[in-house]
Amino acid sequence: MISKLNNAHSLLVSVARLGLGLTVTEYCRENPPRPEMPLELYQYEGCPFCRKVREAMSRLDLAYISRSSAKGAGANRYFVSARAGKTQFPFLVDPNTGAELYESEAIIDYLAETYGGGRSALAKAVAPLSTLNSALAGGLRPRGLSSRLKKPRDAQPEQLLELYNFEASPFCRKVREVLDELELDALIQNVAKGSKRRPELVKRGGQMMVPFLVDPNTGRQLYESDDIVAYLRATYKGG
């Protein structure tokens, strides 16, 4: 019963955001971007500005390394402050071009121009309304805002966790929240509708369903959000 209520609660955010991040843009369906090195996004789930960037990356079919930067997290927040001079999120690092950017709108413009065939004038015009809506959606479910560890994580697992995901999925949201609460970085493999990465997921896991977690540190592979959340908490709660 609790799990069903949690799923319904998470779904409210997807509904409030009108399903943004559910499907890949037509341009990226035909021209799937595959940068040589994965982009890195310093972000956390409860941040409305971070949400807008994650939605854009889902729509552009971009994989990226999520650098968990929830309040109370240690190394990633320190990195951003030391690297760019202020602790502000989201912060994008693109090792393919050398670009490093703050500000969600600047990041979305950059991603669209570099990997998505450009951004429409309409999308830019409605950006302030999207920001307001994202903040309201976050108010519906204020989770993934802060670390729940007793002390900041000393080090990440030896190998990056992998999460097959798309932004609009309420089940994936539950997993991303826990990743931030446990200060866990992860390689996010976006597989929104129309993604050319979907056959890879089916090959690895056996079915087209998200979320799907791959932990190369233990060899575990899991579907089902509740199973993944329980696994992460049992395996990595110690920091």
UniProtKB/TrEMBL annotation:
Coiled coil: none annotated. GO terms for molecular function: transferase activity. Keywords: Transferase. It comes from the Bacteria. Gene3D superfamilies: Glutaredoxin. CDD domains: GST_N_2GST_N. It holds the Pfam family GST_N_3. This is Glutathione S-transferase. The lineage of its organism: Bacteria, Deltaproteobacteria, Bradymonadales, Bradymonadaceae, Bradymonas.
